[in-house]
Here is the input.
Amino acid sequence: MKRILILYASLGSGHISAAKALEGAFAQFHDVEVQVEDAFDHASPILREVVTTIYERLSERVPELYRMVYEGSDVDDLEESENDNKLYAKIERPFLKDLERFVRNGNFDVIICVQQIPSRLLELMEQEGKLAQPHYVVVTDVMAHSTWLNPGVDGYFLPSDLTAEVLTQRGVDPDLLHVTGIPVKLEISQEKSKQEMRKRHDLPSDRPVVTLFGGGMQSKRVRLMVSKLLESPHPGLLNVVAGRNEKLTERLEDLTDGPNMQLRKLGLIDYVDDLVVASDLVITKAGGLITSEVLARGVPMVIIDSFPGQEEWNADVVSAMGAGIQLRLPDMVPPAINHLLSEPHQLEFMRQQATRIGQPRAAMRVAEIIVEKLRSPQAAASVSV
Here is the structure.
């Protein structure tokens, strides 16, 4: 039985979801045992508090400063970026002693990181001869920031050919790059019919369905978009998913159906994938996970309110590939939606592009490649040394 450790750091939901998707994929192999751990559960509370506070306050309160820090720390030169990451790792290491001990005593055959912090620690351990097993990195942003890069990584699993091209230009060995997509839950690789999903959730079968995932957006901006969309001349249904955002739920409380566009207000739901399949268009932010899930279902996106940094980069890629459009002003979302609903040929092109670049089997592809490497004679020999 081969033992695999998957490490993430609980900064946002994307890393956690990718780790869980990989766990489900590896569970399909009878000779593999997988364990998923949050690096912060094996870290000093000081590190968790400092890192999460900096991330949340910069990205939410001073987004322009966050953009400057994020883009300014992205280094094109491979050697320079690896040296920077080594410095970050040395700063973090005193707060990760428990994680280091856990890795050394865990008797794992492979370690997979879906976030940069644990990956940097493993690189230091390898340089000191304290890490015998191979170490892989699964990049969970559409574009790979230089903080993902370390010299001892045995392989990178990447969202797209564009990501691989950028890393190759930066000097990363192409033999280490595997284009698989960002891991999404296995449910998304299962075929679902739009009509069946609409019937299951009591959605209209003869009109467009638009879904707005607004839980991570400012409630005032969502209300503006929704109120204008309800004035649409096109018959249809608008789903607004507030998730855990109670302020948004309150802000939308008095809104009702428009003359042509019906409104359905939803809170926290457990059928996001069904709703994506049932939709003709999705309005969302550009987190790595949600964009990957929507692309994997071949549904066009209208992206709004992206966080500076990685979300803006994600949105740029989706827009550049023709699978969606990125907007900054909420006032522009309703006319964009109305335009797309009145231009079925353009909407169909976007759907085709989303289908072309979506990767519904990303988690299984990562698992298949790593399990194949584990089963190879070379891998067995290296573990026994």
User: Anything to note?
Assistant: The first strand starts at residue 2 and ends at 8. The chain has a mean pLDDT of 91. The chain has two domains: 2-184+361-384, 190-357. The domain at 2-184+361-384 is CATH 3.40.50.2300 (Rossmann fold).
